[in-house]
Automatic annotation (TrEMBL):
Alphabetized PANTHER family for the sequence: FGGY CARBOHYDRATE KINASE DOMAIN-CONTAINING PROTEIN (PTHR43435:SF4), RIBULOKINASE (PTHR43435)
Limits of the Carbohydrate kinase FGGY C-terminal domain: 309-519
InterPro entries in the record: ATPase_NBD (IPR043129), Carb_kinase_FGGY (IPR000577), FGGY_C (IPR018485), FGGY_N (IPR018484), FGGY_RbtK-like (IPR006003)
One Pfam family named in its UniProt record: FGGY_N
Protein name stated in the entry: FGGY carbohydrate kinase domain-containing protein
Domain Carbohydrate kinase FGGY N-terminal: 10-280
Organism listed in the record: Oryza brachyantha
Gene Ontology terms: biological process: pentose metabolic process
Length: 577
């Protein structure tokens, strides 16, 4: 399908955990074409690594294929934006990769976001109680960059001495495309302890420019043993920062343009982390009726503060904004201008959601046979499981599907608890196992896991609201948002309506917004969001009081599973003393 009227097209690129994707959008936010390309990943215990060279090749392939699918000529692409996981990239003075791997493999120069090698370093950093930690929920996570940097310095001295630039992956992509190593307020504030509000009094988004990076707390870096990173005007971690969507350098370099199949000079916007791009791609997706009635008595700025975006993929990020800074124990933030410029961002999260569902399903003995059945029906295994659950509820005369799991309870902390407990040592729990190995047993485990994930979201929403937020509406995007059962369970369990976007590819749209702003098609990110975001279906909580009563009871069991784990942990620690 050609771009509507042959008009301007915005290109968004997203590098996720397993794939690089590209999507083209018209001036109304309609998706014209998308393509993806796989990327390599190495996993060895807690160490999870990737290659920036491999990722760039995948990005180039995805962009070329997306342009072909959208029938978009290079000259029609007028703006480009990048989003990516918050993985850590190491390059030398020439931009070549530097290994961060025990293996010494020079290709492996990225510590992936979900890598947990730096748990010990995170604990030591947090023990110092630095003032900057209050802006990340009271402590850094091993998924943030400071602990990972400390791990490399302590374990890979040769690599440490060779690195000229440490960059978040989305910043590296923009640097690779433009040659400009200005960092984003999104990446630096959310993952590097950069204090973005240092710019709050001096600059507004409309002043768009590279800002001297005055938000680094040099005392913090020196205290944790990384003082060498703030030497030389912080060149290794960022001398200048900019609001997301700020145009970088002179746009796309000739070399990068040739590799991507685009024209040199195309404006490239300062980047976003992928989850935050999802927030930008969906947060203004408000149904017309709601915007005309329910919100008429509220200011525009207040209305957006009632929403929380769930970016549901391998993990889930829970994004909410406020005009005032809200300090919430165990929840990352408040981050100034890290997603919507000039708003404070609160960022909750669950480290394994899509990854957990895959794990539960793929490791069940019934999975291979069920996968074959699904393939023969041209369905996903999850569509088939949803169908099996409906059939089971009918067979057992259950009035609602959720009741099937009355004896099965899941604590979904298989990769720790990011929010609101901030406990990377938390473990997953399945309560109610039997000797069953059939597909119905798998369906029950799958449903109980979805519910456990949704109870985790309820815990995050309740915790945020108890500390000053007023969240009453959820917006969901990402792969799991396409699963109707997953979304309905979340609506029933949280009691919030869930708005789904018109376009499935919200992260790509958020990245494309950056290109549109860089191209000066909109004054700022939120102006672009209001035009390019659009609502699709709205999923409401069940009106059946029995459903609420059931989930309230299961939620209390969910909360007790963690308390029991803490008790068990203490008992065993005492026994081993």
């Amino acid at each position: 399908m050609p771009p509507a009227g042959g008009g301007a097209v915005f290109l968004g690129v997203d590098v996720g955990t397993g794939r690089a994707r590209a999507g083209l959008f018209d001036e109304k936010g309609k998706l014209l074409g998308t393509a993806s390309s796989p990327i390599q990943i190495w996993k060895e215990k807690d160490c999870i690594e990737q290659s920036s060279t491999d990722i760039w090749h995948a990005v180039c392939a995805a962009v070329k294929n997306a342009c072909s699918v959208a029938n978009a000529a290079p000259e029609s692409v007028i703006g480009l934006g990048f989003a990516a996981t918050c993985s850590l990239v190491a390059v030398d003075a020439d931009g070549a990769p530097v290994s961060i791997s025990w293996s010494g493999d020079a290709r492996r120069n990225i510590i992936v976001w979900m890598d947990h090698r730096a748990v010990d370093q995170a604990e030591r950093i947090n023990a110092r109680n630095s003032p900057v930690l209050q802006y990340c929920g009271g402590g850094v996570s091993p998924e943030m960059q400071a602990p990972k940097l400390l791990w490399v310095k302590e374990n890979l001295q040769e690599s440490w001495s060779m690195v000229c630039r440490w960059m978040d992956l989305s910043d590296w992509l923009a640097y690779r495309a433009t040659g400009d190593d200005t960092r984003s307020l999104c990446t630096t504030v959310c993952k590097w302890t950069y204090l973005g509000h240092a710019h709050m009094e001096q600059w507004k988004e409309s002043d768009s420019r590279d800002m001297e990076a005055c938000g680094w707390d040099e005392v913090f870096w020196e205290e944790i043993g990384l003082g060498d990173l703030v030497e030389g005007n912080r060149a290794k971690i960022g001398r200048s920062v900019a609001f997301p969507g700020h145009p970088l350098g002179s746009g796309l370099t000739a070399a990068a343009a040739k590799e991507l199949g685009l024209l040199p000079g195309i404006p490239v916007g300062t980047s976003l982390i992928d989850a935050h791009a999802g927030g930008v791609g969906v947060m203004e997706s408000v149904p017309d009726a709601e915007s005309k009635t329910g919100m008429s008595n509220e200011s525009d700025e207040q209305a957006i503060c009632h929403r929380m975006v769930l970016v549901c993929g391998t993990s889930t990020c829970h994004m909410a904004v406020s005009k005032s800074r809200l300090f919430i124990p165990g929840v990352w933030g408040p981050f100034w201008s890290a997603m919507v410029p000039e708003f404070w961002l609160t960022e909750g999260g669950q480290s394994a959601t899509g990854a957990l569902l895959d794990y539960i399903v793929e490791n069940h003995v019934a999975a291979p046979l069920l996968a074959n059945h699904a393939a023969s029906q041209s369905k996903s295994i999850y569509e088939l499981l949803n169908k099996i659950l409906l059939s089971m509820a009918n067979e057992q005369n259950m009035s609602f599907v959720s009741a099937l799991t009355q004896d099965t309870h899941v604590l979904p902390d298989f990769h720790g608890n990011r929010s609101p407990l901030a406990d990377p040592k938390s473990k997953g729990v399945i309560c109610g196992l039997t000797l069953d190995t059939n597909e119905k047993h798998l369906a029950l485990l799958y449903l109980a896991t979805i519910q456990g994930i949704a109870y985790g979201t309820r815990h995050i929403v309740e915790h945020c609201n108890a500390h000053g937020h007023k969240i009453d509406t959820l917006l969901a995007c990402g792969g799991l948002a396409k699963n109707s059962l997953y979304i309905q369970e979340h609506a029933d369990i949280t009691g919030c309506p869930i708005v789904l976007p018109r376009e499935n590819e919200s992260v790509l749209l958020g990245a494309a917004v950056l290109g549109a702003v860089a191209a000066k098609k909109f004054p700022g990110v939120r102006d672009a969001m209001k035009v390019l975001n659009a609502a699709g279906k709205v999923v409401y909580p069940s009106s059946d009081p029995r459903v609420k009563k059931y989930h309230d009871a299961k939620y209390q069991i969910f909360r007790s599973l963690y308390e029991q784990q803490l008790s068990n942990r203490a008992a065993m620690a005492q026994a081993l003393q």
